Amino acid sequence: MINTDIFIAGGGPAGLAAAIKAAEYGADVIIAERDYEPGGQLTKQTHSFFGSKDEYAGTRGIKIAEQMQQKVQSNSHIELMLEATVQGYYEDDVITVSHENEFKKIKADKFIIATGAAEKMLSFSNNDLPGVYGAGAVQTLMNIYGVVPGKRVLMIGSGNIGLIVSYQLLQAGVKVAGIVEAMPEIGGYLVHAAKIRRAGVPIYTGYTIKKALGKKCVRQAVISKLDKDWNEIANSEEYIDVDTICLAVGLRPLIDLLLQAGCKMAFIPELGGDVPLRDDNLRTTNEKIYVAGDVDGIEEATAAILEGELAALSAVIDLGYAEEGIRDKRQETKEKLYSLRKGPVGEKIRSGLNKVRGVDYVTKDRYSHIR
Questions:
Q1: Please, which residues bridge with residue 133 across strands?
Q2: If you average pLDDT over residues 294-310, what whole number do you get?
């Protein structure tokens, strides 16, 4: 049995930020990441971040991952386990991890679950043809392995991921034939959309993909216009010659460990689906477990970093670390998150968080109404 103060599942931006912050206060931390390098989505992000200097503004995601990795590896309080798959959370508050051909049992005083999210897929005719990708797969191919997915791509979804990946495709010399968005308006930041429009890429709002055409691989995509009730409008089909269809239609939180641990959940569409109930300090209904990042609601990497810091500060405080100013630091982090979520861009997140706060943490009747 391996013992530690805090165990962190997931080495993405939230998990790395949590490890760094907890170690600052002297807590011993083990962080497990299933990939061969830490950083999560940061390792695929070539664009520069917005926000303040404290949140890496002006720095590309890939560089942020490198900086955070260096901080983790240089801190004696942190043990980083790579290519480590967390297998389960058990009733005696033990986590099991497959690592280096061993089955390891880890017992911690506190746990931070930062397992991130998985891509959602979309049902349409022939969606299993070679040439249909998720946006994360396209980013992995291009930004990690230097391989383009095709020569002419149709992007499905105009959220930030769809817009950013479209621009990265253009930078790699790939033709983006268009972006298809079911909503009447673009879903991502206008700054990203403006770059796409300047490049001459058409954005089809109020459209959906109907089918992919091709025998052995994608050769065409058929899109159709939607009415106000989300029904396809007859005879509105358009045929677009492409060899790749990229799906950027959202993410769903990876909550498996939280379910194993008995954490209460709520279905919150604004946050991506089933998410854990938690208080303002990111502590779940299991008092030993905190959450951070996309596992508690789909947001940007900056929010994940701040949530990682908040979860770590909360865990450290609950462990009894009473260092002067630590509670003020936690409140400051909360205020940064609040500021990040202000304005129309954060409206959906605020709505989802309000629903989470509206659920009684004890009474099951109050929990059931939100499903």
A1: 246
A2: 94
